[in-house]
Amino acid sequence: MNNVTAARDSATPFRNRSKLCRLAGGLALGLLLAAAPAGAQDASPSGTGGVTGDQIKQVLGLEGKDAKALGTGLHFKLGIVLALTGPGSYYGRIQGNGAKLGVAQIKAAGGPDIELIFKDHKTADAQAGARATRELGIDGVPAILSSFVGDIGAMFPGVAQYKMLTLDGGGGTSDFGQRKPYFWGMRAIEPDDDFIGALKYWKATDPKIKRVSLVYFDQGPANEIVINNFKKALAETGQELASTELTTIGQTDYSATVSRLKASNPDAIFLFGTGVDPGYFMKQLVNAGMKTPVIGAEYISDAAKVAGPAFDNYMFATDWFNPEKPTNAWSKLFLQSYIKEFNLEPEINAANYYEDTFAIWDLIRRVIAKGGNVNSGEELQNALIADPKFQSVYGGSGTQLGTIELDTTTHTATKRPLGVYMSNNGKPKQVASFGIGGADFELTK
Amino acid sequence: MSLEQVAQLTVAGVINGSFYALVGAGFGLILGVTGRFHYAFALVFTLSAYVTSVLETPAGLPMPAAIVGGLLAAIVLGIAIERFVYRPLARASGAVSLLTIFISSLGLTIAGINLITLAWTAFSRSIELVPLRPINVGAISFASVEAVLVAASWLLILALSGLLNFSDLGRSIRAARGNPQLARILGLDPDSIYLSVFALGSFLCGAAGILDGARFAVQPSMGIRPVMFAFVVAFLGGTRNGPIVVGLAGLFVGLVESLSGLFVSPQWSSLVVFSVLFIYLVLHPVDFRALRASILPAASSPRG
């Protein structure tokens, strides 16, 4: 046996081993990818979720409108600045789904061909938000759907400079985004309206709750406003502040926060957390043996997944979209088409960006009716100011659609149904209802 | 400040510190022996947690099998990164390989995390390592999974220490870490030692990822923060010291981070930890020349 043959022979088992390794690797990869949740993948943006244009026109009362009035054939650029990456990427994904479904259904109903221009603010990265706004402005985009209250304020100057009508259905205007040129909040004031609803709920159901702690995420200069507004809400309901605890977006370890809460021993906790953060917080609070009642400012199913059974103790007060109880014909149509399109139940983030896309179409129709230029953010805003009211998937009943009304001075919502909900094992159950500013508070019978 | 609060924060510090000890031991082993600034440690950490979670829930494997799958994935990925990315880069870039490896590692992490998101979406997943329940000792409480985390972390650190001190492989690794040039002269193969080190470091990293996933949740960016802490712990513990010393540095970092909550908002705890690192580095500058020296011979050797 020469050297070459010997080398070849000695290498053969290694080659076989290498083949075996590759085969095993391929099998393992196949098994893992097969287990990927294909149902949760985004569907094609052209999909309407099985809804026809006629159904949309009927539910919105647009039957009989001609193609010109609806904007057929128009091309409209709509910027959409979301948290596509970073700890809040859950939001970006779901909000994007809502907008994509809206765009497809609007086109099917004879509306304009809306081009969604996605930009990533990387979860409250101010520089990314400012850059995205500048790019959209340079691109001549007349309108934007923003999130994280115009990426925590960084979009305000650009939006005003380029006169781009901006609707924020993620955080609304919050406190710090009010009265900003071209910037409008398309939901309740977060978290102020939630504060008052939660405190009223505790007052009505457990009068022993007097000392309440506030756990809130860092919003920089707006932190002081949040604390002051919480104190105002406490004064209104006759309760007092036990302590305040500052957290950061994307925080996972709350051991120190929980320890400090234990020391301040509040009767209840209001949690102004975002995304999946409430899930991490509740998991550690419950595992630390604390049974203090908690009401948060929002609920997303992913947070419930993070917390597991610890989320059973969680309640939340906000203007939430309840997929278990769609209130009007449009809500039902939205619900069924969203499930069909994305194989997911929609929640507030999908519902808001869906209806905000329709609000943009509404404004386009109004500008067309006046013979104006739909690609002017200024004209779109003028149309909004002239009648600051839009149809909504929230509220209403039967064929009577809900409405969202805006204050033309503060740019915040003046009409929006809110509620207090129990987490209820992944199927939130409403226990109280109220309006903006805690108006008409009522326990659910 | 009550005694109960100090005790509770101390327990939280021990839990976090044990976790930092584990990731620090893995990261420090790789950095100390190979001189690779292995930022893709974050990717290995994340992948092992994902694979365990996916094998547990949709695939329906029993937990021990899922853990083995997750650890294997970590080891395979770690070895593959060294063999197919770092080693060729080290050969090609010579004196500047520390930088090129760090940058490629960063890119690899970003790409890998995005691939994980594409494959399994950005939705959070869970790992049911043990039934979650609170454990109360007097006024102090912690979760059952946290007790497992502390025990597992220190067992793994002790096992690594034992392996490094009492096995042939361990002696080779220590020789390569102590004096790589002499080790080479004595006939030790740096390539295979580096691969073994990556396998061991990735095993620890994978274990930390699974424990972290069980404690919190499994999500694409879960590895970023731990790798930052691993970096702090590895430097504080000394890149040429054994895993127990590095582990104790991790415990120290955990306690500093947690007990700082007595004086400042927990939001600022990371600032406190990195200030400690900053002060340490000012007082004990890292000998980057020594680090580079451990890479250069590998880069210039015929085999790698």
* Rg from alpha-carbon coordinates of chain B: 19 Å
Q: State the separation between the terminal residues of chain B, measured CA to CA.
A: 57 Å
DSSP, total strands of chain A: 16
Q: CATH class of the largest domain in chain A, anyone?
A: Alpha Beta
Helical residue percent of chain B? over 70%
What characteristic shape of chain A results from the CA principal axes?
globular
Helix percent band of chain A: 40-55%
* Rg calc of chain A: 25 Å
Poorly predicted ranges of chain A (pLDDT <50, ≥5 residues)? 1-15, 33-45
The order of strands across the largest sheet of chain B is 1-2
The domain count of chain A comes to 2
Q: Specify which chain pair forms the largest interface.
A: A-B, 46 and 50 residues
Q: What is the annotated CATH architecture of the largest domain in chain A?
A: 3-Layer(aba) Sandwich
> Order of helices and strands of chain B, N to C?
HHHHEEHHHHHHHH
- Name the average pLDDT of chain A: 89
Query: What's the quaternary structure here?
Result: heterodimer
The number of strands of chain B is: 2
Percent range for β-strand residues of chain A? 15-25%
The biggest beta sheet of chain B, please?
A: 2 strands, antiparallel
Tell me what the structure shows.
The complex is a heterodimer of chains A (445) and B (304). Chain A is of the alpha/beta class. Chain A is built from 15 helices and 16 strands. Chain A folds into 2 domains: 53-188 and 326-411, Response regulator (Rossmann fold, 3-Layer(aba) Sandwich); 192-318 and 420-443, Rossmann fold. Chain A has helices at residues 3-34, 53-60, 67-70, 89-108, 126-138, 148-152, 156-161, 192-205, 223-237, 255-264, 277-287, 301-307, 329-342, 348-369, 377-386, and strands at 75-82, 113-120, 143-146, 165-168, 183-185, 211-217, 240-247, 268-272, 294-296, 314-318, 389-397, 400-406, 413-415, 418-422, 429-434, 442-443. In chain A, the strands form 3 sheets. In chain A, strands 7-6-8-9-10-14-15-16 form an 8-stranded mixed β-sheet, sandwiched between helices. Chain A has a 5-stranded parallel β-sheet with strand order 2-1-3-4-5. A 3-stranded antiparallel β-sheet of chain A has the order 11-12-13. Chain A is globular, with a radius of gyration of 25 Å. The N and C termini of chain A lie far apart (92 Å). In chain A, 54% of the residues are buried. In chain B, β1 and β2 (140-143) form a beta hairpin. Chain B has a domain at 25-223 and 288-300. The chains are: A alpha/beta (445), B mainly alpha (304). At the A-B interface, α1, α4, β7, α10 and α11 of A face α1, α2, α3, α4 and β2 of B.
